[in-house]
């Protein structure tokens, strides 16, 4: 093994920290940092990858999508203001509510979490940037392209109209491109969300400042960790569902068609396994913002830090046991409903604990009421009401009455306004001086608050009653003699009041002439983001501090001056390269200086081609789509080859305070290895959802597996498994051979391995050629598993060739083998995938 | 439009006074608050108790928040935060919610108790309801559409299925809803006990005319119900007026019988609703309009205007006299 | 090697790093037990009611839920007890909240609290088997 280990003293002593930095050196260092981090201007601004730039783009795009979706809601409220209105016809109304839900959930609520985390998390952690800045940029561009495409379909009267939940058979049978736009456009965005989750998890685990142990992280980081984990397990089932759905739409494979053994309810399971955790994925980061604001308002540390951690982790787990409460009326056995009713009630407890922690913190502190706190107070009033109706709805028999009525519309808006919109608004007012360096108006803020808060209750409080009086959701009109007229008119007035509040907020946001910040920490907060200088510098923190407290600005009085002077770590950029610090997972001991990728056109290009690959098939342009896909792969390979895991000129770098840190890491030390591990966890979840499908059909349908069915050829399946096992062994062997400097042997292994894998993949495809997937769901699910596994084998082969090229062109040598480690890790998961697929398609049909 | 069917009992009930009267919205034909059966009453009681608890908890929590942020003179002292959080955040909610959960679970079996004999098969179409009555021991059903009648005082079983899309059958005044899913049969049982006219509606998004998929539910005294069912089993009465006779001929010539059945005639179509006793039903177009002659004429001439994407073609070439004859024929199908 | 070049300076570092990595996972043990209990109950009931319930009744199913619940509670109790030893609650009063508990105690504390929630969750999830005796 190489001599790449940290050298020098850690932690730093007070004498070391007290030593002044010469002014000339400070100036020189600032120039270096500026050269490395400066944001480009003109058209090249679009090449930016810096988290502060991407974060702002991301958040602004979310805001625009939110306004668009909100306008759709206003138009719907006009249609519903009076009975029998003809403002919107039925089809357009259906498109509007579908896009309102889709836009708000997929294009606003979830991406806004990613946007705020990308913007704020590095500052919370005193880091220069996220660990994979180009991935952030790629995620942003994917989101923008997909979002514009999906929402834009409304303008062409081509939007999906089967609800944001897209239940088959309505959505699978729907004519036109609407359902495909929804599926492919959103799959594209979901992939970007998973990318963001991977990056945020790695950011929290590996990019904390030295000394910030796991129990000293800002609470926001805990929430990011939990929510990132939830995304990894919640989004993949929907991606698997999307794959099956699109196979049914495009190739008529009958996954959801009961006439050919399919099951419409299977989609509902997959959708809500995603859909309910998703509610908490939206809610927790917003509560995390509150958890940053409340201590500042109380001017004291949070009371019950461990309780918040418990609450976040507990909510994250329990939220996966709730999905069937969206399916209480589908006629499942009562005992099954009971389990989900119980879990739905249990999740109330950790959710409530957070509120009590905030209450206790405020009670023990000296509260300074401010505009952000006003929004938090409004959020509490609204969220507790929504939570209490949630307790009612989790009681299954009560849900049988009000399910799919306006009572639910009221409930979900109470939870989402109280649990997401209002805390986020608090966050915007609180963090605006941080990211815009100007204060928002107190007076306009109060107007906006009272209009939104009052308008909200005017709009949605009556809806509880509308629902109890029997009005179902998603109706484009209603008769005038059932007693719903007054209530609906009040709701419409309320909706426009909310809109007026948002108009004031927007004006405040964009109006010129807001006063510049004079004090970098206007709220007197205790966390690291407020060390950001009054004039924002592109490098983020001037030097990465050594932290000994949860609230370093309160407890480490000399911290800010020392950071500004460049007394702490990484105060310079001698090679004019962007760098951030990597620390250990638990105790945040410095382990490495990570060279992060800089500005480039490649994320934008990769996103455009990936978008083409997802979007062109909707118009049946399969050849251009395939070409676009190839170009996307090419872009990503170029990006990886030229910008990641570069062999540094020198192995070690002086990191400040006498510490020398390595510039290269491989295996579990490297952030890329963690990213691969986390990505494969998500990937395996999607695969598990497909396997779940097989057993779901077996449980739910008496005609699964049909008696006369043709099975996959067992011999060929076994051959495939054996080939992959050998290929995996060779890949694993190549890693060892390379490390022990047997370059030729390693290269030979890396030639043999993909050859074997290619043979194995061919055997797998041949094993199912006799099957007719349009005839019944059994051959269809077998073929879906083969598609999934085959695509993964192809990717594995590509990776093996990438490593082969790496060993030949000097990117990989005995001392620098991080690519080989990451590829081997991928192959561990691939081996498992192939083994399970082989067992399910080769063995299970013969045993069940 | 439809006959007013306000339950007098509901008007006197505290739930209405508390919740509804201030907003003068006390029709209640389709209201959860207007409970007219065992199941809905049990759920209304559950709701009122939960609502009272929720109001108390909401006031308590928000009152506490107001107190600690605005009203108190100085910082409070909580000696052991862990005990406070344990008591308020874990112990209290666990007990309260656990009790509520137990109550909710305990009433579930009763809500799905087996029926007392009458089985009603309801098959959802786009966007209307095919209804078959199977009294105890019946070997063939008595077919109707877009109206469901129940005998008061006994539990009826509804066997629900669907044609193409998922729908959901819901009569708020009688009890909870149940989805109707292609490829399965789901079972809902209801025990109505107050006679009257109620309204039901599809609760699951099912396409363009989801909003217009309703029906009338009628709860009758058991004897009345038995008599009514016997009448429904009979063939359609022959036309009695010249207009109705002309209407029958038009019905034949325009091919209406290809889609609609009128038992006792040559019309045996099975695509649209059975019209054998059409005139005995309270509504037109699946719970949406009063079956007056004018509404019938408008419906026949322009069904697709009234109900988007409906399968029935618009007979807009018929002149008003012809439409009136058709309406007369249909109004005679008592 | 990395450890040797960075000599430990405070008492916390005497705790073996491997132990701490384990206890980061340990805070998730109790919720994982809850999740396993939940999934087994749900999958068991779904398969039982789809395949054998209509003919054979639910006695076996309900007894299985009871047994699973006892096992889950036992396991969570054991995890919680271990975590309680690690936490030493007398060290964390409100006055001391300015200073974070040390990382060792913190992970114990979080694990105790998660065990508490998991116990409530497991008991709730067992309740349906008490009240519902059919596969309807």
Automatic annotation (TrEMBL), chain A:
Localization per Swiss-Prot or TrEMBL: Cell membrane
Coiled-coil boundaries: none
The keyword Ribonucleoprotein belongs to this UniProt entry's keyword annotation: no
Gene3D superfamilies found in the cross-reference section: Cytochrome c oxidase, subunit III, four-helix bundle, Cytochrome c oxidase-like, subunit I domain
Transmembrane segments: 57-82, 102-125, 137-161, 181-205, 217-239, 279-298, 305-325, 337-362, 374-396, 416-435, 447-469, 489-510, 601-623, 671-696, 716-737, 749-771, 777-804, 825-844
Presence of the UniProt keyword Aminoacyl-tRNA synthetase in the record: no
Location of the Cytochrome oxidase subunit I profile domain: 31-531
GO biological process entries: aerobic respiration; electron transport coupled proton transport; respiratory electron transport chain
One GO term describing the cellular component: plasma membrane
Family per record: Belongs to the heme-copper respiratory oxidase family.
The protein's name in its UniProt record: Cbb3-type cytochrome c oxidase subunit I
UniProtKB/TrEMBL annotation, chain C:
Top-level division of the source organism's lineage: Bacteria
Keywords: Membrane, Transmembrane, Transmembrane helix
Ranges that cross the membrane: 27-48, 60-81, 106-132
Protein name listed in UniProt: Uncharacterized protein
UniProt source species: Paracoccus amoyensis
UniProt KW Transmembrane helix keyword: yes
């Amino acid at each position: 093994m190489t001599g790449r280990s940290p050298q020098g003293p850690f932690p730093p002593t007070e004498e070391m920290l007290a030593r002044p930095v010469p002014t000339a050196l400070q100036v020189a260092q600032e120039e270096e940092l500026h050269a490395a981090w400066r944001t480009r201007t003109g058209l090249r601004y679009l090449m930016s990858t810096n988290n502060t730039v991407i974060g702002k783009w991301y958040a602004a795009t979310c805001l625009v999508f939110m306004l668009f979706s909100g306008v759709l809601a206003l138009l719907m409220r006009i249609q519903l203001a009076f009975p029998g209105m003809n403002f919107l016809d039925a089809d357009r109304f259906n498109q509007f509510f579908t896009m309102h839900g889709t836009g708000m959930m997929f294009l606003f609520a979830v991406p806004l979490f990613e946007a705020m985390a990308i913007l704020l998390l590095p500052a919370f952690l005193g880091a220069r940037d996220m660990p994979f800045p180009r991935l952030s940029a790629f995620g942003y561009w994917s989101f923008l392209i997909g979002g514009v495409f999906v929402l834009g379909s409304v303008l062409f009267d081509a939007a999906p109209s089967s609800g944001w939940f897209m239940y088959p058979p309505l959505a699978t049978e729907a004519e036109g491109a609407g359902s495909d736009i929804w599926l492919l456009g959103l799959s594209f965005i979901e992939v970007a969300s998973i990318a963001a989750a991977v990056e945020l998890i790695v950011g929290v685990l590996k990019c904390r400042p030295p000394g910030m142990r796991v129990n000293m992280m800002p609470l926001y980081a805990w929430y990011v960790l939990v929510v990132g984990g939830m995304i990894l397990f919640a989004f993949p089932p929907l991606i698997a569902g999307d794959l099956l759905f699109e196979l049914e739409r495009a190739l008529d494979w009958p996954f959801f068609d009961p006439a050919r053994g399919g099951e419409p309810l299977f989609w509902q399971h997959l959708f809500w396994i995603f859909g309910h955790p998703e509610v908490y994925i939206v809610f927790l980061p917003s509560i995390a913002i509150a958890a940053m604001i409340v201590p500042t308002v109380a001017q004291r540390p949070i009371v019950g830090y461990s309780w918040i951690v418990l609450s976040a982790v507990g909510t994250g787990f329990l939220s996966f046991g709730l999905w069937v409460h969206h399916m209480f009326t589908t006629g499942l056995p009562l005992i099954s409903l009971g389990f989900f009713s119980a879990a739905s009630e249990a999740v109330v407890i950790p959710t409530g604990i957070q509120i009590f922690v905030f209450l206790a913190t405020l009670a023990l502190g000296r509260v300074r009421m401010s505009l952000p706190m006003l929004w938090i107070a409004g959020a509490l009033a609204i969220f507790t009401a929504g939570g209490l109706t949630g307790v009612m709805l989790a009681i299954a028999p009560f849900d049988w009455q009000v399910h799919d009525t306006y009572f639910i519309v009221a409930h979900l808006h109470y939870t989402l306004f109280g649990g997401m919109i209002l805390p986020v608004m608090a966050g915007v007012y609180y963090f605006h001086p941080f990211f815009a360096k100007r204060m928002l108006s107190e007076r306009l803020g109060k107007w906006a608050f009272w209009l939104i808060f009052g308008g909200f209750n005017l709009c949605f409080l009556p809806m509880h009653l509308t629902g109890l009086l029997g009005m179902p959701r998603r109706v484009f009109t209603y008769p005038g003699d059932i007693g719903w007229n007054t209530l609906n008119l009040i709701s419409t007035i309320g909706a426009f009041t909310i809109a007026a509040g948002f108009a004031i907020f927007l004006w405040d946001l964009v109006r010129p002439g807001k006063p510049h910040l004079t004090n970098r920490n206007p709220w007197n907060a205790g966390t690291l983001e407020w060390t950001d200088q009054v004039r924002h510098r592109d490098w983020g923190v001037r030097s990465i501090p050594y932290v000994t407290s949860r609230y370093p600005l309160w407890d480490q009085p000399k911290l800010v001056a020392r950071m500004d002077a460049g007394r702490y770590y990484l105060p310079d950029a001698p090679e004019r390269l962007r760098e951030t610090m990597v620390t250990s997972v638990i105790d945040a001991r410095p382990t490495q200086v990570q060279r992060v990728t800089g500005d480039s056109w490649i994320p934008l290009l990769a996103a455009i081609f990936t978008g083409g690959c997802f979007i062109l098939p909707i118009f049946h342009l399969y050849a251009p789509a395939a070409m676009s896909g190839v170009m996307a792969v090419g872009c990503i390979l170029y990006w990886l080859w030229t910008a990641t895991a570069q062999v540094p000129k020198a192995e070690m770098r002086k990191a400040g305070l006498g510490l020398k840190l390595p510039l290269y890491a491989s295996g579990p030390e490297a952030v890329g290895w963690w990213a691969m591990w986390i990505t494969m966890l998500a990937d395996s979840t999607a695969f598990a959802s497909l396997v779940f499908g097989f057993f779901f059909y077996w449980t739910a349908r008496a005609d699964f597996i049909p008696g006369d069915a043709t099975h996959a050829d067992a011999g060929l399946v076994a051959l495939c498994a054996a080939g992959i096992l050998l290929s995996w062994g060779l890949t694993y062997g190549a890693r060892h051979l390379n490390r022990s400097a047997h370059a030729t042997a390693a290269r030979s292994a890396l030639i043999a391995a993909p050859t074997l894998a290619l043979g194995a993949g061919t055997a797998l495809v041949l094993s199912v050629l006799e099957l007719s997937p349009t005839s019944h769901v059994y051959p269809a699910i077998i073929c879906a598993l083969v598609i999934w596994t085959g695509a993964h084998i192809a990717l594995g082969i590509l990776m093996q060739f990438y490593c082969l090229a790496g060993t030949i062109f000097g990117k990989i040598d005995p001392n620098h083998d991080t690519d080989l480690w990451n590829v081997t890790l991928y192959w561990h998961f691939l081996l498992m995938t192939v083994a399970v697929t082989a067992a399910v398609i080769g063995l299970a049909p013969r045993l069940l | 439009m439809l006959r007013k069917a306000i339950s007098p009992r509901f008007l006197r009930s505290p739930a209405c006074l508390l919740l509804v009267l201030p907003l003068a919205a006390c029709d209640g034909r389709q209201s959860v608050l207007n409970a007219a059966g065992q199941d809905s009453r049990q759920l209304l009681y559950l709701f009122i108790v939960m609502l009272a608890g929720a109001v108390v908890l909401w006031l308590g929590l928000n009152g506490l928040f107001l107190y600690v942020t605005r009203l108190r003179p100085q910082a409070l002292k909580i000696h052991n935060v862990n005990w406070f959080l344990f008591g308020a955040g874990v112990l209290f909610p666990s007990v309260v919610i656990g009790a509520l959960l137990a109550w909710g679970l305990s009433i579930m079996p009763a809500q799905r108790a087996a029926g007392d004999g009458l089985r009603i098969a309801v098959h959802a179409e786009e966007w209307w309801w095919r209804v078959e009555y199977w009294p105890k021991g019946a070997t063939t059903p008595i077919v109707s559409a877009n109206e469901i009648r129940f005998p008061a005082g006994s539990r009826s079983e509804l066997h629900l299925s669907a044609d193409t899309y998922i729908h959901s059958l819901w009569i708020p005044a009688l009890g909870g809803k149940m989805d109707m899913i292609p490829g399965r049969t789901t079972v809902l049982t209801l025990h109505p006990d107050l006679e009257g006219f109620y309204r039901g509606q599809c609760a699951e998004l099912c396409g363009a005319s989801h909003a217009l998929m309703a029906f009338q539910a009628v709860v009758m005294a058991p004897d009345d119900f038995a008599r009514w069912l016997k009448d429904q089993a009979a063939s359609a009465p022959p036309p009695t007026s010249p207009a109705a006779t002309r209407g029958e001929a038009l019905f034949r010539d325009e091919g209406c019988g290809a889609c609609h059945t009128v038992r006792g005639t040559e019309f045996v179509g099975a695509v649209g609703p059975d019209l054998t006793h059409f005139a005995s039903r309270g509504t037109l177009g699946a719970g949406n309009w009063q079956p007056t002659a004018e509404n019938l004429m408008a419906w026949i001439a322009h069904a697709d205007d009234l109900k988007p994407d409906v399968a029935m073609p618009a007979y807009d070439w018929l002149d008003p006299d012809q439409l009136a004859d058709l309406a007369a024929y249909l109004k005679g199908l008592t | 090697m990395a450890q040797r070049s960075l000599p430990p300076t405070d008492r916390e570092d005497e705790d073996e790093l491997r132990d701490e990595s384990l206890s980061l996972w340990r805070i998730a043990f109790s919720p994982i037990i809850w999740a396993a209990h939940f999934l087994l109950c749900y999958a068991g009931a779904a398969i039982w009611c789809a395949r054998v319930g209509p003919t054979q009744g639910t006695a076996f199913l309900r007894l299985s839920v009871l047994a699973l619940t006892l096992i889950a509670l036992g396991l969570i109790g054991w995890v919680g007890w271990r975590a309680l030893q690690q936490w030493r609650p007398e060290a964390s009063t409100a006055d001391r909240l300015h200073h974070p508990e040390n990382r060792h105690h913190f992970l114990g504390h979080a694990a105790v609290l998660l065990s508490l929630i998991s116990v409530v969750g497991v008991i709730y999830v067992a309740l349906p088997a008490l009240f519902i005796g059919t596969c309807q």
